[in-house]
Amino acid sequence: MSPRRTMLAGCTALALALGATACGGGPVAPAGGGDKSLDGQTITVAGVWSGAEQKNFQKVLDAFTEKTGAKTQFVSTGDNVSTVVGSKIEGGNAPDVVMVPQVGVLQQFAKSGWLTPLSKTTEKSVDGNFAPVWKNYGSVDGSLYGLYFKAAHKSTVWYSPDALDQAGVKPPATYADMLKAGQAVSDSGLPAFAVAGEDGWTLTDWFENIYLSQAGPEKYDQLAAHKLKWTDPSVVNALTTLGKLFSDKELIAGGQKGALATDFPGSVEKVFGPEPEAGMVYEGDFVAGVAKDQFGKKIGEEAAFFPFPAVDGGKAPVVSGGDAAVVLKDGKNQKAAMAFLEYLATPEAAAVWAGAGGFLSPNKKLDLASYGDDTTRETAKSLIDAGDSVRFDMSDQAPAAFGGTKGAGEWKLLQDFLRDPSDPKATAARLEDAAAKAYKG
Q: Strand 319-328 to strand 147-153: parallel, antiparallel, or no bridges (unpaired)?
């Protein structure tokens, strides 16, 4: 037994099983091989990821296989996680683990009796390695069902330094200044913003940042729980602010029609691809992964970000999101599935994706040096330092029928608003009708 393995022998049961942490709790180098205790077993993991995200998550799956011997199979669900997983359960082909991207979907799964509470080992790791907010969002009726492995910092605006330099502007501190900077970029010959209108979830993120800054955290929490109606003047005010951007064809690459035909990866390509069509793209920290992996951009030099700016005198918003791993009761391999979540709860597992890019971990024990660049370290530190003050993505807290379904609910209604932003009050009324039905159901 090597000196390192001898040291691990005195650590926690999780470290014994996975070789993931030192006795002091900090991250250590991968053990390389592990005990192969799950050799011959296979788990199926379902999630929304595709492209670069799926490729990088596969590295985490491969590391788990190397450590435990368990084989893995990833199944992409697309955006309609709830529908796809439900049909697989009904068909007797349930995955073992699902990476759930919305709090509302996790709650729906738990209340439907689809989930198995996580092991005490995982819960102990969550208590020690994560801020309490992450456990709260992963729990239903006092039981921990979801482990937040991947987080997002959704209050970042990414830009081409060359585009801003050419326009003679610097990263803005207020929303009004951002629109002025956008106009300067447009005047220099390049549309200001690439908007991924084909993906409705990006439009909810635009709204949430504006709303949190304008209306404040108390109303944000009330609206997220539907204790405040979407017809409230604060909602109409936020939609009005957003509509001013959506209706300005000089500021949006391709105008409204072009935005509605642009998905998220396409919006990043418009800014950081070989033939730039815009100077800025608003979305979360995961923009960096696409810019780096698909277009070879040096993060911090050729692709940079500024915090989503404060709106109308409010505070700069900090909106987050995340993907929670859950174990399905109807999965065929509960033992290996639970072991996989115990692995995901360790800083070692987070370090695998952190080094690849396009990833933030809510695990505060992950060494920031694990991230590949200073820009990502900056966003990761911001998220960890926010602790319990961060506000979780509002649409992710809603029932899936309202906040998490492609072509329906908030996603579709904000796409309709992008297409015609002339009547914010009418859009607010339609949002309230959809929310009332979904929350009642």
A: antiparallel
**Contact partners, residue 397, CB within 8 Å, separation at least 6:** 102, 103, 104, 224, 225, 403
d(CA 257, CA 239): 19
Report d(CA 140, CA 344) in Å as an integer: 20
Residue from 73, 133, 145 nearest 108 by CA: 145
Alpha-carbon gap, residue 11 to 5, rounded angstroms? 10
The answer to whether the beta carbons of residues 213 and 310 sit under 8 Å apart is yes
Tell me the C-alpha distance between 190 and 186, whole Å. Answer: 5
Tokens encoding 150: 């991947």
What are the DSSP E strand ranges found in 237-338? 280-282, 304-307, 319-328
For the CA atoms of 375, 377, 378, 383, what is the dihedral angle to 10 degrees?
A: 130
Residue with tokens 């729980």: 225
Return the closest-CA partner of residue 97 out of 378, 334, 351. Answer: 334
Band (pLDDT 50/70/90 cuts) for residue 30 is very low
Check whether 321 has a pLDDT greater than 70. Answer: yes
Q: Which helix (H) or strand (E) holds 343?
A: helix 334-344
pLDDT by residue (tens digit) across 98-128? 999 888 889 989 999 999 999 999 999 999 9
Where do the domains of the chain lie, and which CATH numbers do they carry? Answer: 3-24+32-153+320-389 (3.40.190.10), 156-317+407-440 (3.40.190.10)
Helix (H, G, I), strand (E, B) or coil at 263: coil
Mode of pairing for the β-strands spanning 304-307 and 71-76: unpaired
CA separation, residue 15 to residues 128, 143, 148, 177, 379 (Å): 14, 24, 19, 50, 28
Q: Is 319 left (phi over 0), alpha (psi -120 to 50) or beta?
A: beta
In eight-state DSSP terms, residue 307 is: E
pLDDT averaged over the chain? 90
Query: How far apart (Å, rounded) are the C-alpha atoms in residues 101 and 89?
Result: 18
State phi, psi for 399 to the nearest 5 degrees.
-55, 145
Segment 44-60 shows an average pLDDT of 93
Q: What is the pTM of this model?
A: 0.76
Task: Give the separation between CA 47 and CA 293, rounded to whole angstroms.
Answer: 20
> How is residue 75 written in tokens?
């199944």
pLDDT digits (tens, 9 = 90+) for 256-311: 999 999 999 999 999 999 999 999 999 998 898 899 889 999 999 999 999 999 99
Is 140 within 8 Å of 109 (Cβ atoms)? no
